[in-house]
């Protein structure tokens, strides 16, 4: 029996394959029916299938479920956006109104495929990792690590510095200034360092909450609450707050020896509660105090925006196999470019920028390009569809899923080793890859910067870390 066959005989992967086949078959039927009888009800049915699939994943592959929770949660919100679009919601960035086309059904199939591939990678690595660290007493080991107080002090110091910066300029949650405008006005590298690395802080705090006891656990919880509070004060909204919340709970679940018996579907309730609590924050930043109607309009238009790129790609793609060699060459060239972000603004464009330049009205496009970091999002799947066609998109999608699965597996490995350097390196890769998958800018997934960090990871794990590092 070869290695490939043995992988698919693993109980968790066998259940996954069966679950995936069932979901794809159901969605295929919905796709055919939606073509014959267009109705937005099929998008609701697709959302139900996705929910059924996620629940099955939580039951049969709990580690993969919790590691992929961030990806699945935001893809679920994108499918909700697709449902709204198929019920006729407006897409102001593209100047369009939605209609029932079955696009949400087909997007659900793409998401299920991606999750299945990433889960297979995670499950294979997980089995080897658990065998290696089955007898590791993390609580007694990590309680003696001297890097923990240094981390606490460094995080407190950085937080104090950014709070001072905010008090001088005015916190966006009180002034109504957008977080992007605030960053441009401040222009502080220390502020950007703090805000761009909050995911790393949250994951490390989550690790300490999972494996520490007593005073160190209490301090970790307090620092996470502080991190969330500061993020809200600086105008961070739904995506940021949800990402931090999920990252802090992942280590506790991954390292739980009873994970196979945990009912992870219960996480749905706290996620819904956190989502609801972010709405007042978003409305405040959108100017609720001055104009509640305008604030609500901004919120609803933002919601429909998540699924609009897939909607137009699905609407305009009629080729089963359709290879855009010019566009793909431009994208591949960005992998070795020292200014890949500038290439996204050059013809023939790639990722979300492909749709911005080809679909947005000139005035609105100019506004987006003039405002740093303002862009459309969730551009990977629609970009791959637009440049590869329905069949060939599966190849780059598979490669992306494998890379993402390996990245999450490395993060899991860092949690099992309780090694802050491994977690730091994995999270740096995670931040870039996550943005790349959302924007469709694949230089953030395969570019030279990623390759260099992967080499650093290999050198560290192979030649430096040796056994578990204790920074004493």
Q: Count the helices. How many?
A: 26
Beta-strand percent range: under 5%
Low-confidence stretches: 468-472
The string of secondary-structure elements, in order, is: HHHHHEEHHHHHHHHHHHHHHHHHHHHH
* Average pLDDT figure: 86
Q: What characteristic shape results from the CA principal axes?
A: globular
Radius of gyration: 22 Å
Q: Main β-sheet, in a few words? A: 2 strands, antiparallel
Level of helix content? over 70%
Oligomer: single chain
Distance between the termini: 47 Å
Spatial arrangement of strands, main beta sheet: 1-2
- Tell me the domain tally: 3
Say how many strands there are: 2
Task: For this entry, give a set of tags.
mainly alpha; two-stranded antiparallel sheet; disordered C terminus; 3 domains; 472 residues; single chain; globular; 75% helix
Structure description:
This protein is an all-alpha fold. It has three domains: about 1-135; about 135-260; about 310-375 and about 380-470, no CATH class. Helix content is about 75%, strand content about 0%. The protein has 26 helices and two strands. The chain has helices at about 5-10, 10-35, 40-60, 60-65, 70-85, 105-130, 140, 145-170, 170-175, 180-185, 190-195, 200-210, 215-235, 240-255, 270-285, 290-305, 310-315, 325-335, 340-345, 350-360, 360-370, 380-390, 395-415, 420-440, 445, 450-465; strands at about 90, 95. The protein has a two-stranded antiparallel ribbon with strand order 1-2. A hairpin with a 4-residue loop joins strand 1 and strand 2. Helix 3 runs antiparallel to helix 5 (about 70-85), helix 12 crosses helix 24 and helix 14 (about 240-255) runs antiparallel to helix 15 (about 270-285). The longest helix has 30 residues, at about 105-130. The radius of gyration is 22 Å and the shape is globular. Mean pLDDT is about 85; it is low at about 470.
């Amino acid at each position: 029996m070869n290695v490939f066959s043995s992988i698919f005989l693993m109980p968790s992967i066998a259940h996954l394959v069966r679950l995936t086949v069932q979901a794809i078959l159901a969605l295929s039927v919905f796709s055919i029916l939606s073509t014959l009888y267009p109705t937005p009800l099929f998008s609701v049915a697709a959302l139900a299938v996705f929910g059924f699939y996620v629940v099955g994943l939580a039951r049969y592959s709990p580690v993969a479920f919790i590691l992929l929770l961030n990806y699945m949660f935001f893809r679920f919100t994108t499918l909700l956006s697709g449902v709204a679009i198929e019920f006729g919601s407006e897409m102001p960035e593209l100047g369009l109104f939605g209609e029932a086309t079955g696009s949400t059904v087909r997007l659900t199939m793409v998401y299920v495929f991606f999750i299945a591939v990433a889960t297979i990678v995670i499950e294979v690595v997980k089995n080897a990792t658990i065998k290696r660290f089955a007898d590791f007493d993390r609580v007694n080991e990590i309680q003696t690590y001297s890097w923990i107080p240094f981390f606490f002090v460094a995080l407190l110091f950085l937080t104090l510095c950014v709070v001072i910066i905010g008090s001088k300029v005015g916190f966006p949650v009180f002034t109504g200034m957008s977080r992007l405008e605030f960053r441009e006005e401040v222009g502080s590298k220390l502020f950007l360092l703090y805000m761009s690395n909050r995911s790393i802080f949250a994951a490390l705090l989550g690790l300490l909450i999972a494996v520490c006891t007593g005073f160190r656990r209490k301090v970790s919880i307090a620092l996470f609450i502080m991190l969330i509070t500061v993020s809200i004060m600086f105008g961070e909204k739904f995506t940021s707050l949800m990402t931090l919340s999920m990252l802090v709970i992942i280590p506790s679940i991954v390292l739980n020896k009873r994970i196979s018996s945990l009912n992870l579907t219960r996480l749905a309730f706290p996620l819904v509660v956190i989502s609801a609590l972010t709405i007042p924050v978003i409305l405040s930043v959108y100017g609720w105090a001055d104009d509640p109607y305008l604030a609500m309009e901004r919120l609803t238009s933002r919601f429909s925006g998540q699924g609009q790129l897939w909607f137009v790609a699905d609407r305009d793609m009629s080729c089963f196999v359709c290879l855009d060699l010019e566009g793909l060459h431009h994208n591949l060239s960005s992998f070795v470019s020292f200014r890949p972000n500038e290439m996204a603004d050059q013809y023939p464009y790639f990722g979300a920028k492909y749709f911005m330049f080809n679909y947005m009205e000139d005035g609105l496009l100019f506004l987006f390009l003039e405002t740093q970091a303002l862009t459309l999002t969730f551009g990977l799947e629609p970009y791959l569809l637009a440049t590869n066609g329905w069949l060939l998109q599966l190849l780059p999608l598979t490669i992306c899923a494998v890379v993402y699965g390996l990245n999450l597996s490395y993060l899991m490995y860092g949690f099992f080793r309780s090694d802050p350097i491994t977690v730091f390196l994995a999270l740096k890769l995670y931040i870039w890859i996550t943005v790349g998958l959302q924007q469709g800018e694949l230089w953030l997934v395969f570019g030279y910067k990623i390759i260099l960090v992967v080499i650093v990871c290999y050198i560290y794990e192979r030649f430096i870390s040796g056994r578990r590092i204790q920074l004493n």
